[in-house]
Amino acid sequence: MNIRRLALCVIALIVCVVCALVLIPRKPKYLGQVKTEAMINGKNVSILYGQPALDGPAIRGRDPLSVAPVGFVWRFGRNEATLIESAGRMVVDGKELAAGRYTLWARRLGEDKWVISFHPKTKEWYGRPLWGDVMGGAARLQNGFIADMPLTTEKVSDRAELLNIKLSEDKGKAVVTIHFGNVVQTGTFAVN
């Protein structure tokens, strides 16, 4: 009789543990790449990026926009490098770029100065998409950038757990808004 009671208690305990594990809320998993797009002066512009999480393995709760050292180059997304594609010519801080595809990289140039840098390399030499970083977290590309879009930075109270990039149009210019952690950064470029 005692063995039966013990067996029933063990089974009840296992059922309780399984139920508790099923009911524990899970954090969002990596959702793959996200696309934001807008029509700027009648030309389609899109940005394709991965969404790192603040509590993900690479960042571990740190706000990369606040703790990155001056000179830091960030792949600006998760896994594959962030891509921008434009059907029209882009003018980025006075520099003209042909219509096409480019990778985007966030660079900290000063204590309060960030830029999004455009790079012409979008694929590896063997044809696969360009991966964002190498072992140890350093950005794959450290030079060869062809244009820099200056960013304005604002601290906000609402916290974005996942990197969020929004592309919109304002008075004929493309507006890129980046929200990650408690930081919102904004930059603009023209599309002709």
Describe it.
- The termini are far apart.
- The longest helix has 22 residues, at 2-23.
- The chain has helices at residues 2-23, 64-67, and strands at 33-40, 43-50, 73-74, 82-86, 90-92, 95-97, 100-110, 113-119, 147-150, 152-170, 173-191.
- It has one domain.
- Strands 1, 2, 3, 4, 7, 8 and 9 form a seven-stranded antiparallel sheet that branches.
- Strand 7 and strand 8 (113-119) form a beta hairpin.
- It is built from two helices and eleven strands, in the order H-E-E-H-E-E-E-E-E-E-E-E-E.
Structural class: mainly beta
Gross morphology is elongated
Q: Kindly state the percentage of residues in helix.
A: 10-25%
- For the record, give the distance between the C-alpha atoms at the N and C termini, rounded to a whole number: 85 Å
Report the average pLDDT across residues.
82
According to DSSP, the number of beta strands is 11
Q: Determine the number of helices (DSSP H or I, runs of at least 4 residues).
A: 2
Instruction: List the secondary-structure elements in sequence, H or E.
Output: HEEHEEEEEEEEE
Point out poorly predicted stretches. 25-30
Strand content: over 45%
State the major sheet.
7 strands, antiparallel
Number of domains: 1
